[in-house]
Sequence to fold (246 residues):
Amino acid sequence: MIVFAQLSDTHLDGGQPRADRVRAVMASLAGGRAPLDAVLVTGDIADHGLPGEYEQARSLLTGPWPVLVCPGNHDERASFRRVLLGGEGDQPINQVHRMPGSVFVLCDSTIPGHDDGYLADDTLAWLDTELGADPVTPAFVVLHHQPVPLHTEAADVIRLSGEERLAAVIGRHPQVVAVLCGHVHSAAATTFAGRPLLAAPGVVSTGVLPWEERDSADLTAPPAVAYHVLGDDGRLTTHYRPIALR
Fold:
């Protein structure tokens, strides 16, 4: 059995209120009884892509398990890579993490200077190669932008485009269990390329649905996380949980 948590859209800005929300989430994960194998953070870690925001993230996004991070449209590649990954350069931040019983392939869906997403040809070729390197171990494809509309107006207009190219790659690799994303600030579940598509709730705010009579983002709702459980029978189960703020 593999158990991992997913959180997203921390939008750290150097201030205390957002840091407190992230701290509460990480404390809940560390203090809980879930036997976590990893924690996944699916983008928009910083709000302005500033080095100081990533320094804040580095101090907060830590625990007794691997913390895997991918960029979102608010992130800046060079600072993200330098502070969080210890590297240099502004090329797409694509990463693969192989663990006992699972593979996480994190794709950079960002377009520098834009809010919408797109997977470059080189990124898709890299994804195809990494998935092909181990056709047996269950794999999760991870990116920030959702590849299909999720009926959240603010995020759907800046979702991933060219999604049929991603679907074609996933279709060649039956060991892909699910696609995991952030961006929508809302716990959501649908399908994509014949697999579950699971969006993490937001930490900084919760997205508002078209029929909810509120602003486009609820800043008062508690942060939340997703717990993903991959059973020994290959079945993926996801639970979404709010985190109390103290």
Q: What stands out?
A: Residues 2-242 form a domain with the Purple Acid Phosphatase; chain A, domain 2 fold (CATH 3.60.21.10).
